[in-house]
Amino acid sequence: QVALQFPDELLADAVEVAARMEAVTGAEMYVLGDTTYGSCCVDEVAAEHVCAEAVLHYGPACLSPCRKLPVLHIFGKQPLDVGRCTEAFRELYPERQSRVVVLSDVVYAHAMGELEQQLCPEYPNIIFSRLVCGDPPGPAVPGEERKFGRQFLVEAAGGLQDYAMFYVGAEGLALTSFMLTWNRCPFSSFNPVTGCGRRETLNVNRALMRRLYLVERARDAGVVGILVGTLGVAGYLTVLQHLRELLCRAGKRSYTLAVGKPNPAKLANFLEVDVFVLVACAQNSLLDSSDFYRPVVTPYELELACNPAREWTGNYLTDFRDLLPGACAHVELPPAVPAAEAVPDVSLITGRMRATHLCDPPSSQLPPSTALACRDQTRALAEISPAASFLESRSWRGLEQQLGQTPVSKAVQGRRGIAIAYEDEGCEQP
C-alpha cells in the first residue's frame, strides 16, 4: 500500500499516475489530495490513515526529514535554458576567481549537472550544492553545510561568508529562507521563467529588523499560542515540549493549537493570545503576519525572547531542529533567578517594565482541598486558564442566562419567508 501525495496544481494527473503505478508495481495506490498543512511537507498522518507503507511525494518539497515512513520525492523537471543561465552567471560574476555557491529549486535539480559542466572549467572556486532527502548519515565534516536539504563543502579559510550565493529558481519562500539564514552572503538569482538574472534587492537588514521587532512583541506577551504547523517533520513533538517548558519557565501561559493552515480568520478566534509561535518546516515558518490580528513568530524568535542565555549573533535559524538538544545551535536554559535578584527590563514597544529572568518550574503537587474550597471559583479558574482570565477582564461576557427569572410562556408562530420579503408583510405597489 503506497500513498501518492500531489499538490493542488498536479491533482488533475493523479488518477492516471495512480493507475499506471498500480499496473506496473501491483501495489495498492491511494491519492492524497488536500493536505492539512503545507504541500511541500510529507503528510504522514494522512498516509497512516490508509495504512500506507511508503509515500511518493510529487512536486516542490522542503526536504524536511520524516519520522516514520520511507519517502520517495518526484520533483518533476521544469525546463531550464542552461545556455541563458550560464550567460547570466557570467554577467553577474565577471571575475573568474569569484567564490560562488550555486543553489537551485528542486524542480531544476535535473539540469544542475549540465550547468556545472559549463561553469566549472571557467570558475575554479565555484561550488554546486547537492540535494539530500532526509538526514545524511554520519556527522558533518569541518566546513560542510547541511541545511534545507542541501549539502555542500566550503573550502575557503574564511568560511561561508567569503562566498556569494547564486540561486536558480523563481522568487519565493525558499529563496527568502536562504537569504535570512545566510544573511552575510550576497545573493543573486536566475529566474528560468523570465530568463533574467539579477542581484537580489531584498533588503535583508530590513527583513531582520522586522523579525527582531516580533521578538520584542514576544517578550511583552503574557499568553502565547503554539501553532502546530506540521505532524510529519521529525522532532516536532520534542520542540513542542521544549517551547512549553521555555514559556513556563519564562512566566508565560501557553495554548497548543492545531488549526491546520493558519489564516487571519482562524487565529482571530483566540483574542486572549498575545503572540503565536508557528512550529512548521523551514519554508513555512516565515509566515507574513502583517494581515493577522496577532503577530506570528518562529521558534527561534521565541527563544530569543524568552531564553536569556541565547543572544543575537547575526545568524538566523529557520529550522526548529537546530534548537533541540544535540544540535549545533542548542543553548541550555540557565538556572532560575530569584525575583528579588532579577534585573528588570524595559519594553522597547510599550515602555513598561517587564521581567526577563527564568523562574523554577511550578510544582506538580496540588494545593490542599480546603484551600480550593475557600477561593472564588471564577478567580481560581482565571488563574489556571488564560481564556477565563481574559473573559473576566471584559465588560461584555455574552448573553446573560437569567435562569429562573424569565417567565414561562407558550411558543408562538414566528415569521415565514426570506428576510427581504416575509409572508406577513405587505407588498408596496410602485
UniProtKB/TrEMBL annotation:
Domain of life where this protein originates: Eukaryota
**Names of required cofactors:** [4Fe-4S] cluster
Under Gene Ontology molecular function, one entry of this record is: 2-(3-amino-3-carboxypropyl)histidine synthase activity
BP terms from Gene Ontology: protein histidyl modification to diphthamide
Per the record, the pathway is: Protein modification; peptidyl-diphthamide biosynthesis
Q: Does the keyword Transcription apply?
A: no
Sorted keywords for this record are: Iron, Iron-sulfur, Metal-binding
The answer to keyword Amino-acid biosynthesis applying to this record is no
> Of which family is this protein a member?
Belongs to the DPH1/DPH2 family. DPH2 subfamily.
Q: What does this protein do?
A: Required for the first step of diphthamide biosynthesis, a post-translational modification of histidine which occurs in elongation factor 2. DPH1 and DPH2 transfer a 3-amino-3-carboxypropyl (ACP) group from S-adenosyl-L-methionine (SAM) to a histidine residue, the reaction is assisted by a reduction system comprising DPH3 and a NADH-dependent reductase. Facilitates the reduction of the catalytic iron-sulfur cluster found in the DPH1 subunit.
Output the PANTHER family linked to this UniProt entry: 2-(3-AMINO-3-CARBOXYPROPYL)HISTIDINE SYNTHASE SUBUNIT 2, DIPHTHAMIDE BIOSYNTHESIS PROTEIN
Q: What is this protein called?
A: 2-(3-amino-3-carboxypropyl)histidine synthase subunit 2
Q: Which organism is it from?
A: Chaetorhynchus papuensis
